[in-house]
Amino acid sequence: MSAQREMKEKNPWHKPLTIIITVIGVIAIVALVTVAGLQNRPVFQKYKYGIVLDAGSSHTALYIYKWPAEKDNNTGRIEQKHSCKVKGKGISSYAAVPEKAGTSLTECMQEAEMQVPAWRHQETPLYLGATAGMRLLNMENKVASDKVFEAVEKALQRFPFSYQGARILSGQEEGAFGWVTVNYLDDRLKQGLQTTGALDLGGASTQISFVPHEYDISESPSNAVAFQLYGNYYNLYTHSFLCYGKDQALRMALAHQTRSGPIAISDPCFHPDYSVTRNYNTLYDSPCVSERKPKVAPLNFTHTGEGNFLQCQEVIRSLFNFKSCKYSKCSFNGIFQPPVQGSFGAFSAYYFVMNFLNLTDGSMSLETITNYVANYCSTPWDQIKKVYPDINEKYLAEYCFSGTYILTLLTEGYNFNTETFSKIKFIKEIKGSDAGWTLGYMLNLTNMIPAETKDSPPLPHAGYVSIVTVIVLLLFILVTLFILSFRSIWPKCSKEPQIV
Ligand SMILES: Nc1nc2c(ncn2[C@@H]2O[C@H](COP(=O)(O)OP(=O)(O)OP(=O)(O)O)[C@@H](O)[C@H]2O)c(=O)[nH]1
Ligand SMILES: [Ca+2]
């Protein structure tokens, strides 16, 4: 009995001190795990959302962006959650039936309703920005353009989001916001790194934006945009060429070849054996070419292909005016442009076309690419259709023209040479978000490009380290005390080695 009592007294588990040490130890471990967990927890908290509709000349696309709810005070990373391509053509094509411009958006807007949690709908800003298609319609027929906007506004206001308006972006905004998007997604702005230029080829206009090496803004102030982002200053050069998107450029090329009103043309920018009938009125129904419509012309003309890259380049060159330049340097049409500088991201139709032609591999030289396009253009149309049976024939027929146009625009228009051309990356998206002006537009309108940069965890780093160190020290002391109190009974518990 007394031996049992003695054992009990010696057993450290029966000492109040041991119990206290154990309790404190457990609390310390729980505290350590909690602090570490909170400090390093993944950012999967609630999100906020923003929606931008890109009403382009060829089609409209809806983009939903999301960012961590507690970080919308400028520090959270914004990413694309979802995109939806509106069926049919761009809103400017509904000039004669404006209501349809509104209803065309319904499906994508319903998708947005599903994508954004219902409890966030009311606070989710919704923007619509229209680009070159509406710029042209506005020039051509202001009343029709206003009606399209009215219909679009009415349609968008029916949805539960926080509608912030629909408007036409200036070419300068379109270029600058594309540049912001690319550099934001690449984390170049936050880190103050060298920026990347942005090349956007749309259907009706094309934009070039970059930070030049030495830039005398005063030479052409209308091409300059000054930014202060994350504490850094940027003097951006940007220009948008209306009518030089790939659809309007093709119109201009066809207009050039039909200027005398022939019944047939043999076009070097289309494949040999290609042949379609085109309507004169349809071709010349755009402010980019309407003034050049031949006085006397039949209703239609036969458009056949010839597949000759060099001659196609000649036709394309005729769309540019390289002669007049009142500045120190010009791109074309008398527009000031400093020499291209640094790396570039080329997106939208630059990407669609170069990706189709398998020319997005950065290691290919300008010469290889040119030879490839020349060879592609000379391939007969029947053969092309056989090789690509699943590709929309309208797109397929135009890749020869588009490839040649892209090369001519970049080299002779913007003056990229063999060396600088290799710094162009043809991209669709960056880290899961599409390259384009929409993200930059939303960042600007929601004031989400901050002056300060740091993501701050709940505790400052020094505080976190101190707390963890104190807890670890405490644990160490407790474990030592624990071992010491156990040692008092070890001799009894341990087995003596037995000599047999
Ligand atoms: N091959 C191919 N072409 C496409 C695709 N999507 C759009 N395009 C064409 O590429 C060109 C440019 O498209 P976008 O960048 O959407 O042009 P947009 O925004 O409608 O036009 P802008 O208002 O001038 O910016 C147009 O000629 C489109 O018809 C695609 O998936 N594949
Ligand atoms: Ca566009």
Automatic annotation (TrEMBL):
Necessary cofactors: Ca(2+); Mg(2+)
Gene Ontology terms: biological process: nucleoside diphosphate catabolic process
Positions that bind ATP: 203-207
Catalytic reactions of this protein: UTP + H2O = UDP + phosphate + H(+); CDP + H2O = CMP + phosphate + H(+); GTP + H2O = GDP + phosphate + H(+); a ribonucleoside 5'-triphosphate + 2 H2O = a ribonucleoside 5'-phosphate + 2 phosphate + 2 H(+)
Membrane as UniProt keyword: yes
Topology in the lipid bilayer: Multi-pass membrane protein
Residue stretches spanning the membrane: 17-38, 464-486
Keywords: ATP-binding, Calcium, Disulfide bond, Glycoprotein, Hydrolase, Magnesium, Membrane, Nucleotide-binding, Transmembrane, Transmembrane helix
Active site: 174
Gene Ontology CC: caveola
PROSITE patterns: GDA1_CD39_NTPASE
Predominant localisation class: membrane
Cell location: Membrane, Caveola; Membrane
E.C. number(s) listed in UniProt: 3.6.1.5
GO MF: apyrase activity; ATP binding; GDP phosphatase activity; ribonucleoside triphosphate phosphatase activity; UDP phosphatase activity
Quaternary data: Homodimer; disulfide-linked.
Similarity remark: Belongs to the GDA1/CD39 NTPase family.
Summary of the function given for this chain in its UniProt record: Catalyzes the hydrolysis of both di- and triphosphate nucleotides (NDPs and NTPs) and hydrolyze NTPs to nucleotide monophosphates (NMPs) in two distinct successive phosphate-releasing steps, with NDPs as intermediates and participates in the regulation of extracellular levels of nucleotides. By hydrolyzing proinflammatory ATP and platelet-activating ADP to AMP, it blocks platelet aggregation and supports blood flow.
Designated name of the protein: Ectonucleoside triphosphate diphosphohydrolase 1
Lineage: Eukaryota, Metazoa, Chordata, Craniata, Vertebrata
